[in-house]
Write the structure tokens for this entry.
Amino acid sequence: MSSSLLTFSGHQYLRQRLVLSILSGKHIRIDKIRPEDKNPGLRDYEISLLRLLERVTNGTIIEISVTGTALLLRPGVISGGTVVHECPLTRSVGYFLEPVIMLAPFSKKPLNLTLTGITTDENDLSVDLLRTVTLSHLQLFGISDGLELRIKKRGAAPGGGGEVQFLCPIVKQVKTLNFVEPGKIKRIRGISHAVRVNPQFSNRMIEAARSILNRYIPDIYLYSDVYKGEESGKSPGYALSILAESTTGAIHCAEAISQAGVAPEDIGLKATRALLSEINRGGCVDRRHQTLILLMMVLGSEDVGRCRMSEPTAKTIQFLRDVQSFFGTSFKVVQADPSDPESSQLVYSCYGTGYVNANRTLA
């Protein structure tokens, strides 16, 4: 792989570009990071992410310009091991875990990462969805033994105080994915939690969600997760995360988070409606996990991987372009069901690069 320099501009899609750079070994330079903003340059959570990536890898050199509006990254090897990181209270731990989950299977030693901060907020995936949905997506690629996310403490915004531990095994190579049968929804699972508020809020969210879901399917299990005392963090908050699983193992997920002055019932209804619209879009993978699945398909063994998903989000479209810059892999995207003009589902297929984890210690 040539270590030629790739240049990007803007603060968007920073995380996926850092991940692609570390995996492909190509140096990147990102400039024009919020140059017009009244507070220009990198935000504290972006710098914190760079520090975390520096700890998870060995030999990575990150240079940030004086104004913070440009950065240069020379990637090292992904080393793994035991890492403890404190996340700033401007973003939840999901923001930091998503890129790490993409890198962890290719490290030298199995990763044991402890993150502290806010566990659930409205910008990023909550730890519940990362645990139940994101990790089960990794299992499609043969990454399963010892893969775990433990929620030690919850932390609602703005005070945080949560703690999660992420354990990830290492693999030599990921399997090729062939996932084009979405199947029919067979069960719905969910977790609601309420910290530092009346514990009844949790049950009220569940009842509201059931009032809609009971019309569709009998197999519904919504679990109320209770955290007491120290384990419930520093701020009050509650949320409901639900997921629907199909007969072929396709998972769609949605969540809603407490807002000031909104009743728990409305949060329950909001999450449920979001889940139904996600199921309506169809496909085998929901929109929030498109980039993870596509990345693992690119890194798959030298064979054609196929996956059926709904139309790409703006983030996914940019990700496909970035993948082409870093790995030279382009996807073939065709309509999943040409006979049905109403269907917006697409089949994404690509030829894997046969990426082999060269970092791992040979046993």
About this structure: The mean pLDDT is 93. The radius of gyration is 20 Å. Residues 254 and 274 are 6 Å apart (CA to CA).
